[in-house]
């Protein structure tokens, strides 16, 4: 048995307090974006986009990853894809996925390379993202100028509230 296989077979504890942020963990790569997308992302970040989310990687090991994402009220999640399947479990709050309203204990599955977005509910949403791949990509599919403008306005309007927000789980 290899050392890596033996380690997988040992019980391990992963503490939320020690979980790195998504960028810090390095498990997600961002695919190249167009100039319009890069400019849009830059404007969103200036308007407070990063204050509307908190994403941590709870587990990152061969064959398994678990991410906790808290997206705050009205957070404009870009339409995107990932190159790995993902099961989403709603811990607290709610979201709208297409025409469906989902809440605590609901799940949804997004296969690899399927485009999606969702809208956090009035209290925001906390989801667990379960993948069998320790790394995955992010392909931004937001191209519409009107979407970028509205997203920037949403960030500016919510920035202060996002700074004071508490997760729906308490």
Task: Give the SSE layout.
Blueprint: H1 3-8, H2 22-25, E1 28-30, H3 35-47, E2 53-61, E3 64-71, E4 80-81, E5 86-97, E6 100-102, E7 107-110, E8 119-131, E9 136-140, H4 145-164
Parallel strand pairs: 1-9
Antiparallel strand pairs: 2-3, 3-8, 4-9, 5-6, 5-7, 5-8
Helix pairs in contact: 3-4
What's a quick, concise take on this entry?
By secondary structure, this protein is α+β, with helices and mostly antiparallel strands. The protein has helices spanning 3-8, 22-25, 35-47, 145-164; strands at residues 28-30, 53-61, 64-71, 80-81, 86-97, 100-102, 107-110, 119-131, 136-140.
Written account of the structure:
- The protein is an alpha+beta fold and 170 residues long.
- It has a single domain (19-151), classed as Jelly Rolls, CATH 2.60.120.
- The chain has four helices and nine strands.
- It has helices at residues 3-8, 22-25, 35-47, 145-164; strands at 28-30, 53-61, 64-71, 80-81, 86-97, 100-102, 107-110, 119-131, 136-140.
- The strands form two sheets. Strands 2, 3, 5, 6, 7 and 8 form a six-stranded antiparallel sheet that branches. The protein has a three-stranded mixed sheet with strand order 1-9-4.
- Helix 3 (35-47) runs parallel beside helix 4.
- The model has no long low-confidence stretch (mean pLDDT 95).
């Amino acid at each position: 048995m290899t050392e890596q296989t033996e380690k997988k077979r040992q019980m391990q504890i992963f503490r939320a307090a020690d979980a790195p942020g998504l960028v810090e963990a390095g498990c997600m790569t961002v695919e190249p974006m167009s100039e319009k997308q890069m400019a849009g992302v830059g404007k969103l970040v200036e308007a407070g986009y990063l204050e509307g989310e908190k994403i941590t990687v709870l587990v990152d090991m061969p064959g398994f990853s678990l991410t906790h994402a808290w997206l705050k009220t009205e957070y404009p999640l870009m339409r995107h894809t990932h190159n790995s399947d993902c099961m989403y479990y709603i811990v607290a709050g709610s979201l709208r996925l297409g025409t469906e309203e989902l809440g605590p204990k609901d799940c949804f599955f997004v296969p690899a390379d399927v485009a999606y977005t969702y809208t956090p509910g009035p209290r925001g949403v906390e989801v667990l993202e379960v993948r069998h791949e320790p790394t995955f990509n992010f392909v931004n599919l937001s191209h519409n100028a009107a979407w970028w403008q509205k997203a920037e306005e949403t960030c500016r309007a919510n920035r202060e509230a996002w700074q004071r927000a508490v997760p729906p789980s308490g």
